[in-house]
Amino acid sequence: MFTRLRLTHFKAWKDTGDVALKPVTMLLGTNSSGKSTLLQSLLLLKQTVQSADRTVQLNLGGDEVNDLFNFGGFDDLLNEAADQPRQFSIAFGFKRPDAGALRTGSFECVYGQTSSGSVAIQSLTLTTESHRFRAIRRDKGAYSVMVGDEPQPRCKGRNHAPERSVALPAESIAALGTDGPLVEDLSLAIRRELTGISYLGPLRRKPERDYPWNKTNPGDLGSDGKGAIDALLASALLKGEQQNAVVEGVSDWLVRMKLADRLEVRQQGRSNRYELVIHRDGIACNLRDVGIGVSQVLPVLVVAYFAAPGSTVLLEEPEIHLHPLAQSVLAELFVETSRARNIQFIVETHSEHLFRRMQTLVARQTITPADAAMYFVERTGREANLMALELDESGRVGNWPEGFFGDALGETREQTALAIKRAKEMRAKVADVPR
Q: Are residues 71 and 8 in the same domain?
C-alpha cells in the first residue's frame, strides 16, 4: 500500500507536499485542477518498471499497446514555473505486510533533461527504516552510488546508471557487497507496488451483445475496462476454489445499488461465445439492452474483486452514468472491499453523493478518519493547490471549500422566496378581480 506521495515541479504541481494516502483516499476538486496528475505520476512509474528495456530511466509512453499514457516530452511534464535547475521529482512511501523484514520503504527520484533532450535521472534515493541508498548523476552520464552518510561513493561510473527508475544495475549490486541483496529486495518491493496498480480511467468500453472467451484469466483489466468481461467469464467458467467469486461479488453490489437482481454468464449454444445477462424484476436482458450505467460500473465492481490482495486500485470518476443511490453505494464498496481484501483505493470523483456517504460511514464508525483521506484540489492561477479535508468522528468537514457542491440551502431558500412571491402576486390578482 502506498502511504504517501509527493510531486515537485511535475505538471500542474509546484509542490504537493507530503500527501498522506490511506486505504481509501478520495480526491475531489474542480475540472483541470491537477487531480488526475496525482494518479498519473504513479502510472508513469508503473509503465516505466514494466518497460521491456531495462536501461530506460523514464518511459514517457508512445506504445499504444503496452503503455498506459503518452506523456509527451520532458517539457510536457515540467511545471512551467520551474526555474533552474529544470528538474521535477516523484516520491512515495509504501508498506507491505507480507514483506518480512522489509515492511516499509520509500522512493524518490529527481529527473532532468540531457543536452540531447532525453529524460535522465539526476538522483535516485531508496530507503528502508534503517538504510539509505543513493545514485547521483555526475558528469557525462556517470553515477556515484552512495550508502547512508558515508562520505565516499561505494562505486561510480557510467555503468552504474539506474534502471527503470527503481533499480541499480548488477554492477552496482556486486559493488555494494553485503548491502547489495537489501537494495535488490527494496527495488523488488517498489516494483511490486507499482506493477500491482490497477487503473480504470473515466471512459469505459460500451457493452457488446456477446463475447468470445479463450478459457484464460486476463492479466489486467485495462484502463478502459476491456478485460472486465473476460474476468467475469473466467470467474464463472474456470473450475477451482474461486469459481464464481467475482460474479457473485459483482452481483451482490448490483443488488445493493438497485441496478439488478442478479448477473448471469450464459453460453450461446455450444459455441465459445457468451453473453452477460442482467436479471431484474423477473426479466432477463442482455447487458447491451440495459442502461449504460450498468456496463460502465461493471469494471469498477470487477476490479474490486479481481485486483490481488495488497494491491492499489486507481479510479477516475467511477460514478459516471449512475443514479444518486448507486453513486452513494460506491463508498460502501470501497470501504468494505478495502478491509475484506486488503485493497487500497485512490479515487478521483466529482460525486457529492459518493462523498456524502463517506461522511456517513465515518459517522457510523464503519471507517475511521485514520483509514480514509479526503482531499480537495483547486487551481489558483496557474498553480494547483491541495487541501486535506478535516473530518471529525461525526463525519463533519471543518474546512469545506465554499460552493464546490453548490449551495443546496441557498437554492432552497431562493425557491421558497420565489414561491412566496408568486403566491402573493396571485392573491393580489384575485383581490383585484371585480365581483
A: yes
